[in-house]
Amino acid sequence: MIEKLNVVPFVSVDHMMKLVLAIGVERFLVELADEIETDFRRWESFDKTPRVASHSKEGVIELMPTSDGEVYGFKYVNGHPKNTREGRQTVTAFGVLADVGTGYPVLLTEMTILTALRTAATSALAAKHLAPRGARTMAMIGNGAQAEFQALAFKALLGVDRLRLYDIDRTASVKCVRNLAGMGLDMTICGSIEEAMEGVQIVTTVTADKQNATILTDNMVGTGLHINAVGGDCPGKTELHPDILRRSDIFVEYPPQTRIEGEIQQLPPDHPVTELWQVIAGRAPGRSDARQITLFDSVGFAIEDFSALRYVKRQIERTGLYEELDLLADPDDPRDLFGMLLRAQAAAPTAA
C-alpha cells in the first residue's frame, strides 16, 4: 500500500464519510460486527486494561490501548455532554494502529464517526446472542448522535424494523425520524418512556447527561426483555434503577472497567456478571429462558476499537480513501537525526 517509511495513511472525517457511504452504512455495520465478533473469539490473545481516564467537572478524556502481540492500537476519546450547548460534539475521537515489530504507526484515523459505528455494531452483536429470538420492536430512549447508528445496526443484524422513540427533547426524536426516513423502519415518537416501552422486546438507553440518572425504573421492565444500556460509561453516570440490575442477567465487556464505569457500579463489587466474549466463544450461556431479562452493560472497550481500526485499514487499502501524512522522521542514516535537520536548513531558500 505505502512503501515510504515516513508516510502514514491518514483517514480524515471526509474520507471516513466517503468510505462509509461507498460501502453502505448497513453493510459497514454488519462487516464491522463480524470483525468484532472474530476478535472477541480470540479475546485471550489481547492485552487488556481499563482505559486511562482524566476526569473533570465538564467531562472526561480517555486513552484506550490494546495489542494482540502483532499490532498495537489505541483510541483517544472524550465525553463532554455540555459541548452540545456550544455547537460541539459530546464525543470526539481519533485512533492509531502500529506495527509491534517496529513501533511504527501504520494508520491514523478520525474515530468520531467510527466510534458511533463500532458502538452500534457491538450493541447489535451482543443482542444477537442475548435478545429474544425474532425480536422486531425496540424502544430507543435518547435520540441524539448515536441513535440512528444503533437503529440501523439492530435492523441489519437482527431484523428489528419497529422503533419507539423517546427523548426529553422532542426535536431529537424528530431529527431521528427524518434521518431514517426511507430506510425500512416503522418509527413512532412517544410522549413518555412508559409509552415507548409498550410492546417492545428490546430497549436501548443512550442518554448523555453525566450523572446518576434513572431513565428506566423497575416497574417499566417486564420479563423477557433485552436491555442495551449504552449511556452509562463513566463513574457517576448511570441510567438504570439498581432494582433492574438485580433482576437481570448481566453481560459485560471487561469487568474491571465496567465495575468502575457501567451500570454495575451501583452494585457490590462481587455481583456476578458474564463476559460477552465467553458467550460469543461458546464458553458461557447467553439467553437461556424466554422470561429472562438480559442486560448488556455496554461501556465500550479497546478491543472493539482495535477491530474497527483493522477493518478500516483493510478498506482503505482497497479503496484508496486516505491521505499520505508525513508523520515520521526518515533520515538517510537512522543514527543521524540532527544531520537531517541540517540538510533541511541547507535546502531552505535564502531570504532576499
Automatic annotation (TrEMBL):
<dbReference type="GO" id="GO:0008473">
    <property type="term" value="F:ornithine cyclodeaminase activity"/>
</dbReference>
<dbReference type="InterPro" id="IPR036291">
    <property type="entry name" value="NAD(P)-bd_dom_sf"/>
</dbReference>
<dbReference type="Pfam" id="PF02423">
    <property type="entry name" value="OCD_Mu_crystall"/>
</dbReference>
<protein>
    <submittedName>
        <fullName>Ornithine cyclodeaminase</fullName>
        <ecNumber>4.3.1.12</ecNumber>
    </submittedName>
</protein>
<dbReference type="InterPro" id="IPR023401">
    <property type="entry name" value="ODC_N"/>
</dbReference>
<comment type="similarity">
    <text>Belongs to the ornithine cyclodeaminase/mu-crystallin family.</text>
</comment>
<dbReference type="InterPro" id="IPR003462">
    <property type="entry name" value="ODC_Mu_crystall"/>
</dbReference>
<keyword id="KW-0456">Lyase</keyword>
